[in-house]
Amino acid sequence: MKMFSKKINKYIVYKHPMCYYKYEKYVRCNLIKIFKKEKIYMISQDIRKIAPEMDPLRRGMGWSSEDLSKPQIMVESSYGDSHPGSAHLNIFVEEAVRAVDENGGKAARYFATDMCDGIAQGHDGINYSLPHRDAIVNLVEAQANATVFDGGVFVASCDKSMPAMLMSIGRLKDMSAIVVAGGVMEAHELPKKYIVDDPACKINELLTLEQIGKFDAWEKTGVIPNEQLDYYKHHACPSCGACSFMGTASTMQIMAEALGLMLPGTALMPSTAPELKEAAYNAGKQLMDLISKGIKASDIVTKESFENAIMVHAAISGSTNATMHIPAIAHEFGFEIDAETFDRLHRGAHYLLNIRPSGDWPAQYFYYAGGVPRVMEEIKSMLHLDVMTVTGKTLGENLEELKKNGFYEHCDEILREKSKLFGRDIDREEIIHSFENAKGTDGSIAILKGNLAPEGCVIKHTACPKNMFKAVLHARPFDSEEECINAVLHGQVKAGDAIFIRYEGPRGSGMPEMFYTGEAICADPKLASSVALITDGRFSGASRGPVIGHVSPEAAAGGPIAFVEEDDLIEIDVDNRKISIVGIHGERKTPEEIDAVLEQRKANWKGFESKYKTGLLKLYAQHAVSSMKGAYMN
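RE: above sequence
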């Protein structure tokens, strides 16, 4: 192995301005011979010996006899015509396949298409969103283990496909793996007639998808005409890629790089950038190097790399859904991380990112400002720099090399070009603040606990008005989102209310997101800073305002949220991480009195029966663990 490593390293050069490895032609043509000469262990070849039908079946697909003895590489993706985040992924699949085939391996394409929360929004289709994350993991596991591969390139972009691929790598952690993200769609430049003065965003010239919920609420309440809403709807997604804000898709692309599973600087590139296509090719090449050196996914992803990812999450004000996905990914790798780990690491962390929805800029500008490497540079003192990455080098070594190979200069050049739209220079610190000039110094999320949520619940406090950090509100419980949003839109919700949407947790209905209700509240200035939305469901990564989700135990499991009644008093205390029922029917009570009332209500509770009697949602309801632990199927 040492001889092999030295020989390969002799032929590695850096390609300016990006930080990817490029093999000389000699190595590319002769890598398969080196694999054989150095006797690199390939499990695929062991399986060939005991499965005699494998060779003829692969020959039937057009494989050559030489292909059969090469390292077998799975190129798994969520490619499909399901939504803009996946419809373009085959471009990157083909680049990765070409790279593997040209660098001594034989690639096989596999597909596990994902669904889109946006397309499933507003109907029961959204209930499949989180469960289908686990369905993808199970499918990838079956595809990988039914054939057996020596390594994998995993290509995805979005909310559930990216965490599903990371969970899959965890389940297949004893093979080499690398991730390619499908990037982010660019924002639409609005004509002057459609630019609105939105006090929640300083950069109103650019349209992104997360604004559509707000504009839809404005149209329903007469603020804008239908024709204007139609324009926004038809131009909010000008290209393929993940939605251009710091939602769950963008967050999880960044988490993949922060875990060390992506080439440095490749998360959240614009999907149309030529560098992204090149990155996919280089990822395929780098996977072959990982295999040659015997570096497996389990060598890269450690408890320390998860802590790095959570620190980056704090710095970017990442989606609250990461508090489910990261624990689920960690579970597959054999580590125990829960939502409280986020709370512990977020406390005192510097929050740097000025990206929508809690900031001003579309997500593509994250890359222009230097991306994940720039964030990591700013919070370097809080990171484990000795963790291994897919480059075969440590995180610290990667960060040092990025300063020398032209990566930051390349990003600066793009940002200068983009500045022309605004008629002024854009300082990258408008997008990614420096550590010293942080937007906040207490991370971006908090885990609240109390007699309402004994296991916890999550709030993105960077998107919550400060006056709602400590408040006592009057409960307005609803047992479905449809009932709740109807009350909001028809003026039945008043300042000082705490709106509850329950029976929407993992075991209740698959844990859909409550995006429309949250946007309807934020779109009403009277409610945006005076009403809280509390649910055992989850929120879109685009959600803003005083929204509290993942309440655990959930209502379907008999959690206290099921027993809240009209006009009960609810106290929220973000700084002290508390959320409690402090009064009954408008009257303050002692904690002991509250406990007695809840016990009585529980005794009268008729229980919960899922309406799903067959299929995936039935299985998920039966086997999903708490959202505080990752909401994975156990």
